[in-house]
Design brief:
Largest sheet: 6 strands, antiparallel
Radius of gyration: 19 Å
Number of strands: 6
Shape: globular
Strand content: 15-25%
Mean pLDDT: 94
Strand order of the largest sheet: 1-2-3-4-6-5
Length: about 220
């Protein structure tokens, strides 16, 4: 596999078309573009980034292009983006990258925590030393242009006071940081590698906190 020199010229066009015609006919007719301009560059990008962000932290993975429609009202068969990740297990920190109609998206943190992970997350947040570290990490990311997102309870979780000094963090059931670059020339150039690497380095403190205080789940999915 050659090194990463950006996503292919037609990567965004491919997903614009798929968003308009999410059908097997479109997919089959344009799969060569997906393979050459989307999947192969994503694999090359993750392979190169693995040298710095993989190892003990986790392994790289390109997500499958097919949607799981078994329990979904939306039965369209294909994802309208291509995502890749380096992680040891969902919820325990992640280095995520995605290409699609909106351009380039990167993210990291605690996605989709299981009940045992959530319990450890809240235990850590409730302790001043660990909770204040997380607050500082998230605030630093926000100042750097990141958006902090996540699923949150409307009230205090069971066992925690409503006036807890870190109640805003305790309410999270998932918490992650996201940054997006609209389609531009850099997406198709070597500079895209630098953009993702720089962003992932900014996520390192967040992901290491998640690894150390949340960890992988003991429960099957």
């Amino acid at each position: 596999m050659t090194g990463f020199d950006g996503f292919g010229e037609y990567a965004v066009d491919f997903y614009d078309g798929l968003a308009a015609d999410n059908s097997k006919a479109y997919w089959d007719a344009n799969k060569a573009t997906y393979d050459a301009d989307v999947h192969a560059p994503m694999q090359a990008l993750l392979t190169e980034l693995e040298k710095e962000f993989g190892g003990e932290f986790g392994n790289p993975k390109v997500f499958r292009p097919y949607r799981d429609v078994r329990f979904a009202k939306d039965k369209t068969p294909y994802k309208t983006h291509c995502g890749g990740v380096i992680e040891s297990g969902r919820g325990a920190g992640a280095y995520y990258v995605e290409v699609g109609p909106d351009g380039l998206r990167v993210g990291g943190g605690c996605f989709h925590m299981e009940s045992d992970q959530l319990a450890r997350f809240r235990t850590a947040v409730a302790e001043e030393i660990h909770g204040d570290v997380l607050r500082g990490v998230l605030a630093k990311l926000e100042r750097g242009g990141w958006e902090i997102r996540g699923d949150r309870l409307r009230t205090a979780p069971r066992g925690y006071a409503k006036d807890h000094p870190r109640i805003d963090l305790l309410q999270y059931r998932s918490v992650f940081a996201v940054r997006v670059w609209e389609p531009d020339d850099t997406l198709h150039e070597r500079g895209c590698f630098t953009r993702v690497r720089t962003a992932w380095r900014q996520l390192r403190e967040f992901n290491e906190w998640a690894r150390d205080h949340v960890g992988t789940s003991d429960r099957g999915r």
